[in-house]
Design brief:
This protein is of the alpha+beta class. It has 8 helices and 11 strands. It has one domain: Sandwich (Jelly Rolls). It binds 2-oxoglutaric acid (AKG).
Length: 273
Protein backbone atom coordinates (compact mmCIF):
# COMPACT_ATOMS: atom_id res chain seq x y z
CA UNK A 1 0.00 0.00 0.00
CA UNK A 2 1.29 3.49 -0.88
CA UNK A 3 2.49 5.52 2.07
CA UNK A 4 0.69 8.83 2.67
CA UNK A 5 2.60 11.97 3.59
CA UNK A 6 -0.60 13.71 4.74
CA UNK A 7 -3.37 11.92 6.72
CA UNK A 8 -6.72 11.21 5.05
CA UNK A 9 -10.02 12.84 5.95
CA UNK A 10 -8.83 16.36 6.79
CA UNK A 11 -11.39 19.17 6.71
CA UNK A 12 -11.02 22.08 4.24
CA UNK A 13 -9.93 24.24 7.19
CA UNK A 14 -7.19 21.75 8.12
CA UNK A 15 -5.97 21.65 4.51
CA UNK A 16 -5.90 25.42 4.41
CA UNK A 17 -3.88 25.53 7.66
CA UNK A 18 -1.37 22.99 6.34
CA UNK A 19 -1.00 24.95 3.12
CA UNK A 20 -0.44 28.15 5.06
CA UNK A 21 2.05 26.66 7.53
CA UNK A 22 3.99 24.13 5.46
CA UNK A 23 3.28 25.25 1.90
CA UNK A 24 1.57 22.00 0.90
CA UNK A 25 -1.23 19.57 1.63
CA UNK A 26 -2.68 16.48 -0.04
CA UNK A 27 -6.42 15.97 -0.53
CA UNK A 28 -7.16 12.23 -0.58
CA UNK A 29 -9.39 10.36 -3.03
CA UNK A 30 -10.59 13.29 -5.12
CA UNK A 31 -10.77 11.23 -8.34
CA UNK A 32 -12.53 7.90 -8.68
CA UNK A 33 -10.61 4.95 -10.22
CA UNK A 34 -12.54 5.13 -13.54
CA UNK A 35 -11.60 8.79 -14.01
CA UNK A 36 -7.99 8.10 -13.02
CA UNK A 37 -7.76 5.26 -15.57
CA UNK A 38 -9.34 7.33 -18.37
CA UNK A 39 -7.14 10.38 -17.71
CA UNK A 40 -4.00 8.25 -17.41
CA UNK A 41 -4.73 6.49 -20.69
CA UNK A 42 -5.33 9.79 -22.47
CA UNK A 43 -2.24 11.62 -21.14
CA UNK A 44 -0.01 8.61 -21.81
CA UNK A 45 -1.35 8.47 -25.38
CA UNK A 46 -0.53 12.18 -25.75
CA UNK A 47 2.94 11.74 -24.22
CA UNK A 48 3.62 9.22 -26.99
CA UNK A 49 1.86 10.91 -29.92
CA UNK A 50 1.46 14.67 -29.37
CA UNK A 51 4.27 16.31 -31.40
CA UNK A 52 4.19 19.25 -28.97
CA UNK A 53 5.51 16.95 -26.23
CA UNK A 54 8.35 15.68 -28.41
CA UNK A 55 9.22 19.26 -29.43
CA UNK A 56 10.26 20.05 -25.85
CA UNK A 57 12.36 16.89 -25.27
CA UNK A 58 15.91 16.14 -26.32
CA UNK A 59 16.38 12.85 -24.42
CA UNK A 60 14.12 9.91 -23.44
CA UNK A 61 14.83 10.86 -19.82
CA UNK A 62 13.33 14.36 -20.20
CA UNK A 63 9.98 15.11 -18.58
CA UNK A 64 6.95 14.76 -20.85
CA UNK A 65 5.12 18.08 -20.61
CA UNK A 66 1.64 18.56 -22.04
CA UNK A 67 0.37 22.14 -22.03
CA UNK A 68 -3.09 23.58 -22.74
CA UNK A 69 -4.79 20.33 -21.63
CA UNK A 70 -8.41 21.56 -21.93
CA UNK A 71 -7.84 21.60 -25.70
CA UNK A 72 -6.77 17.95 -25.64
CA UNK A 73 -9.79 15.96 -24.48
CA UNK A 74 -13.21 16.57 -22.97
CA UNK A 75 -12.10 15.03 -19.69
CA UNK A 76 -9.62 17.88 -19.25
CA UNK A 77 -12.20 20.64 -19.77
CA UNK A 78 -13.37 20.33 -16.16
CA UNK A 79 -10.68 18.34 -14.31
CA UNK A 80 -9.28 21.52 -12.73
CA UNK A 81 -12.63 22.41 -11.11
CA UNK A 82 -12.65 19.66 -8.46
CA UNK A 83 -15.13 20.69 -5.72
CA UNK A 84 -12.93 19.35 -2.90
CA UNK A 85 -9.88 21.22 -4.15
CA UNK A 86 -11.23 24.58 -5.39
CA UNK A 87 -12.37 25.81 -1.93
CA UNK A 88 -8.75 25.51 -0.73
CA UNK A 89 -7.54 27.48 -3.77
CA UNK A 90 -10.27 30.09 -3.27
CA UNK A 91 -9.50 30.49 0.42
CA UNK A 92 -5.83 31.01 -0.42
CA UNK A 93 -6.07 33.26 -3.50
CA UNK A 94 -9.53 34.88 -3.22
CA UNK A 95 -12.64 34.11 -5.25
CA UNK A 96 -11.37 35.71 -8.48
CA UNK A 97 -8.41 33.35 -8.99
CA UNK A 98 -7.64 32.19 -12.54
CA UNK A 99 -5.84 29.26 -14.16
CA UNK A 100 -2.42 30.03 -15.60
CA UNK A 101 -2.41 26.72 -17.46
CA UNK A 102 -3.70 23.16 -17.12
CA UNK A 103 -0.88 20.73 -17.85
CA UNK A 104 0.54 17.27 -17.29
CA UNK A 105 4.03 16.18 -16.25
CA UNK A 106 5.09 12.60 -16.96
CA UNK A 107 8.38 11.52 -15.39
CA UNK A 108 9.78 8.63 -17.44
CA UNK A 109 11.69 5.68 -15.94
CA UNK A 110 15.21 6.89 -15.17
CA UNK A 111 14.18 10.56 -15.34
CA UNK A 112 16.26 12.75 -13.00
CA UNK A 113 14.84 15.12 -10.38
CA UNK A 114 14.12 18.59 -11.73
CA UNK A 115 15.80 21.54 -9.98
CA UNK A 116 14.12 22.92 -6.87
CA UNK A 117 12.27 26.11 -7.81
CA UNK A 118 9.30 28.31 -6.92
CA UNK A 119 6.66 29.23 -9.48
CA UNK A 120 6.12 32.88 -8.53
CA UNK A 121 8.29 35.59 -10.07
CA UNK A 122 8.43 37.57 -6.82
CA UNK A 123 8.69 36.46 -3.19
CA UNK A 124 5.80 37.62 -0.99
CA UNK A 125 6.08 35.55 2.24
CA UNK A 126 2.72 35.44 4.04
CA UNK A 127 0.73 36.29 0.91
CA UNK A 128 0.22 33.57 -1.68
CA UNK A 129 0.10 34.65 -5.32
CA UNK A 130 -0.37 31.18 -6.77
CA UNK A 131 -1.32 27.59 -5.99
CA UNK A 132 -0.32 24.40 -7.83
CA UNK A 133 -2.81 21.50 -7.83
CA UNK A 134 -1.36 18.17 -9.00
CA UNK A 135 -3.78 15.28 -9.57
CA UNK A 136 -1.95 11.98 -9.22
CA UNK A 137 -2.80 9.54 -12.03
CA UNK A 138 -0.29 7.00 -10.69
CA UNK A 139 0.79 6.67 -7.10
CA UNK A 140 3.46 9.17 -6.05
CA UNK A 141 6.39 7.74 -4.10
CA UNK A 142 9.94 8.76 -3.22
CA UNK A 143 11.06 6.15 -5.76
CA UNK A 144 8.95 7.10 -8.79
CA UNK A 145 9.40 10.89 -8.89
CA UNK A 146 6.75 12.03 -6.42
CA UNK A 147 6.89 15.82 -5.97
CA UNK A 148 9.70 16.85 -3.62
CA UNK A 149 9.39 19.95 -1.49
CA UNK A 150 11.08 21.83 1.31
CA UNK A 151 8.17 22.30 3.76
CA UNK A 152 7.88 25.86 5.07
CA UNK A 153 10.19 27.32 2.40
CA UNK A 154 7.40 29.59 1.14
CA UNK A 155 8.20 31.75 4.19
CA UNK A 156 11.78 32.36 2.97
CA UNK A 157 12.17 35.61 0.99
CA UNK A 158 14.55 34.15 -1.63
CA UNK A 159 14.77 31.37 -4.19
CA UNK A 160 16.51 28.00 -3.65
CA UNK A 161 20.04 27.25 -4.74
CA UNK A 162 20.65 24.20 -6.94
CA UNK A 163 21.32 21.72 -4.12
CA UNK A 164 19.44 19.52 -1.67
CA UNK A 165 18.17 20.98 1.58
CA UNK A 166 17.75 19.51 5.06
CA UNK A 167 14.12 18.64 5.71
CA UNK A 168 13.36 18.13 2.01
CA UNK A 169 10.68 15.43 1.54
CA UNK A 170 9.04 13.50 -1.28
CA UNK A 171 5.26 13.60 -1.25
CA UNK A 172 3.82 10.09 -1.21
CA UNK A 173 0.17 9.40 -1.95
CA UNK A 174 -1.97 6.95 -3.98
CA UNK A 175 -3.37 7.66 -7.44
CA UNK A 176 -6.51 9.80 -7.36
CA UNK A 177 -5.22 12.34 -4.81
CA UNK A 178 -4.54 16.04 -5.26
CA UNK A 179 -1.23 17.47 -4.11
CA UNK A 180 -1.79 21.18 -3.37
CA UNK A 181 1.29 23.44 -3.19
CA UNK A 182 1.79 27.11 -2.51
CA UNK A 183 3.40 28.30 -5.76
CA UNK A 184 6.14 29.91 -3.66
CA UNK A 185 7.21 26.75 -1.80
CA UNK A 186 10.50 25.31 -3.07
CA UNK A 187 9.53 22.21 -5.02
CA UNK A 188 10.16 20.05 -8.08
CA UNK A 189 9.38 16.64 -9.51
CA UNK A 190 11.61 13.90 -8.09
CA UNK A 191 13.84 11.30 -9.76
CA UNK A 192 12.05 8.26 -11.14
CA UNK A 193 14.02 5.14 -10.17
CA UNK A 194 11.25 2.72 -11.20
CA UNK A 195 10.43 1.20 -14.59
CA UNK A 196 7.07 2.92 -15.06
CA UNK A 197 6.13 6.53 -15.84
CA UNK A 198 4.94 8.82 -13.05
CA UNK A 199 1.83 10.49 -14.43
CA UNK A 200 -0.17 13.51 -13.31
CA UNK A 201 -2.44 16.31 -14.51
CA UNK A 202 -2.17 19.72 -12.91
CA UNK A 203 -3.68 23.13 -12.81
CA UNK A 204 -1.60 26.13 -11.79
CA UNK A 205 -3.78 28.94 -10.37
CA UNK A 206 -2.89 32.52 -9.59
CA UNK A 207 -4.24 35.91 -8.65
CA UNK A 208 -6.24 37.28 -11.61
CA UNK A 209 -3.89 40.16 -12.33
CA UNK A 210 -0.92 37.94 -13.15
CA UNK A 211 -0.56 37.45 -16.90
CA UNK A 212 -1.64 33.93 -17.88
CA UNK A 213 0.82 31.40 -19.31
CA UNK A 214 -1.68 30.83 -22.08
CA UNK A 215 -4.66 32.88 -23.26
CA UNK A 216 -7.36 30.20 -23.13
CA UNK A 217 -9.84 32.57 -24.78
CA UNK A 218 -7.77 32.17 -27.96
CA UNK A 219 -6.09 28.78 -27.47
CA UNK A 220 -9.24 26.70 -26.92
CA UNK A 221 -11.46 25.59 -29.82
CA UNK A 222 -14.76 27.51 -30.02
CA UNK A 223 -16.77 24.39 -29.14
CA UNK A 224 -14.79 23.95 -25.90
CA UNK A 225 -15.50 27.55 -24.90
CA UNK A 226 -19.15 27.18 -25.92
CA UNK A 227 -19.74 24.24 -23.60
CA UNK A 228 -17.68 25.67 -20.71
CA UNK A 229 -19.75 26.53 -17.64
CA UNK A 230 -19.70 30.12 -16.34
CA UNK A 231 -17.36 28.91 -13.57
CA UNK A 232 -14.98 27.28 -16.07
CA UNK A 233 -14.97 30.42 -18.24
CA UNK A 234 -14.14 32.58 -15.23
CA UNK A 235 -11.37 30.25 -14.03
CA UNK A 236 -9.96 30.00 -17.56
CA UNK A 237 -9.72 33.79 -17.55
CA UNK A 238 -12.08 34.17 -20.51
CA UNK A 239 -14.12 36.78 -18.67
CA UNK A 240 -11.13 38.69 -17.30
CA UNK A 241 -9.09 39.01 -20.48
CA UNK A 242 -7.74 42.42 -21.39
CA UNK A 243 -10.27 44.34 -23.49
CA UNK A 244 -9.23 45.38 -26.98
CA UNK A 245 -12.16 47.75 -27.30
CA UNK A 246 -13.49 50.55 -25.17
CA UNK A 247 -15.38 49.43 -22.06
CA UNK A 248 -18.85 50.32 -23.41
CA UNK A 249 -18.26 48.04 -26.41
CA UNK A 250 -17.12 45.07 -24.32
CA UNK A 251 -19.16 42.16 -22.90
CA UNK A 252 -17.48 41.08 -19.63
CA UNK A 253 -19.59 37.90 -19.57
CA UNK A 254 -18.27 36.51 -22.84
CA UNK A 255 -14.84 38.14 -22.91
CA UNK A 256 -15.57 39.48 -26.41
CA UNK A 257 -16.88 42.73 -27.92
CA UNK A 258 -20.66 43.04 -27.67
CA UNK A 259 -22.38 41.42 -30.63
CA UNK A 260 -23.88 44.70 -31.86
CA UNK A 261 -20.45 46.35 -32.15
CA UNK A 262 -18.56 43.57 -33.90
CA UNK A 263 -19.34 44.65 -37.45
CA UNK A 264 -18.30 48.28 -36.82
CA UNK A 265 -15.17 47.21 -34.97
CA UNK A 266 -14.16 44.95 -37.83
CA UNK A 267 -14.72 47.86 -40.26
CA UNK A 268 -12.47 50.04 -38.12
CA UNK A 269 -9.69 47.44 -38.35
CA UNK A 270 -9.91 45.90 -34.88
CA UNK A 271 -8.32 42.44 -34.84
CA UNK A 272 -10.31 39.19 -34.71
CA UNK A 273 -12.76 39.02 -31.81
O1 LIG B 1 4.90 17.48 -11.09
C1 LIG B 1 5.58 17.69 -10.10
O2 LIG B 1 5.90 16.81 -9.29
C2 LIG B 1 6.11 19.09 -9.81
C3 LIG B 1 5.51 20.13 -10.69
C4 LIG B 1 6.22 21.43 -10.66
O3 LIG B 1 7.39 21.53 -10.43
C5 LIG B 1 5.46 22.64 -10.95
O4 LIG B 1 4.24 22.57 -11.16
O5 LIG B 1 6.06 23.73 -10.94
Amino acid sequence: MTRRTVPVGLTPQEHFERLELYGFTVVDDVLDPVTVAAAKQRVEHLYAHDPKVAAKRSSPLDTMHLENLPAKGELFETCFLNPRVLPIVERTLGSDFIAQDVWSFGIPPGGPAYRLHADDDVRTPGTQLSVVTIYTLTEFTAENGGTRIVPGSHWIPRYPEPRTYQGEISIETPAGSCVVLAGSVWHSSGANRTDTTRTSMSCYFSKPWIKQYIDFSRSLPAEVLDRATPEARRVLGVTSRVRHTERWQWDEGTGHPKEEHRHDLAQQGYGPC
